[in-house]
Amino acid sequence: MMFPGRGPGDMESPTTTFALLEQAKSGDQQALSRAFERHRRRLAVLIHFKLSPRAREFCEVEDLVQETCLRAFRDIGNFTYQSPGSFLRWLSAIADHAIVDRARYQNRERRAGQELPFRSASNPQGPDPADSRTPSRLFAQQEAVERLLGRLDALPEDYRQVLILAKIEGLTTAEVAERLGKSRETVALLVYRALKRFRVLCLESEA
After folding, report:
1. Residue 4 is assigned to a structural domain of this protein
2. Model confidence pTM above 0.90
3. How many domains does the chain have?
4. Per-residue pLDDT tens for 146-186?
């Protein structure tokens, strides 16, 4: 199994992502939607692990993905493409703010007995989610994210941590080493062992 948004060896084509984002800055919302689709699963995984276990009881990951996308749609003019992975890092930073705001909102609205802000059958006046996918496609992608999260959750903490940094966030070995305060050699070995264990879990779940 490949990690979301990745090819056999590298991250998504930076040229393609760069081109889509340049089109988006010119007002092409479809191009921005395609750029989001390339990163949606990885963003969902990052948001899941940014939330505390208690916060997951009250926050739906998909709602936070939608909120992050809505904010990115609004603020795309402020984004500057610097290198492969910079778009996901930008989305991750937006997600951090969305998580904090959602926690504050839910604390306030739970006391007032009010609904979440997104449009739904119980909240028809809320804003539409930034999502044009068909229900079947949405369900399939949500299932894929849940399978990935289940396999990551089954890993030891140190394995899960390095895989999220190296394969989800797309950090280099040097960047992961700096983030974790470990040597590059230690990180490289951890990533190798974590990937090996992850593949075993994939085979076991597909058997």
Report:
1. no
2. no
3. 2
4. 788 888 889 999 999 999 898 888 888 999 999 999 999 99
Residue 188 has pLDDT above 90, yes or no: yes
* DSSP-assigned letters across all residues of 23-57: HHHTT-HHHHHHHHHHHHHHHHHHHHHHS-TTGGG
Q: Which helix (H) or strand (E) holds 151?
A: helix 135-153
54: containing domain: 11-121
* CATH value at residue 23: 1.10.1740.10
For residue 42, what are the β-bridge partners?
none
Contact between residue 45 and residue 4 where contact means Cβ atoms under 8 Å apart? yes
3 inside domain: no
Element (H, E) at 73: helix 61-75
- The band of 10, judged by pLDDT with boundaries at 50, 70 and 90, is very low
Helix, strand, coil: what percent of the chain each, to 5? 70, 0, 30
Residue 95 lies in a domain: yes
Is residue 96 within 8 A of residue 50, CB to CB? The reply is yes
Question: What pLDDT band is residue 33 in, cutting at 50, 70 and 90?
Answer: confident
The model's confidence at residue 2, banded by pLDDT at 50, 70 and 90, is low
How distant, in Å, are the alpha carbons of 36, 42, 184 from that of 172?
22, 16, 10
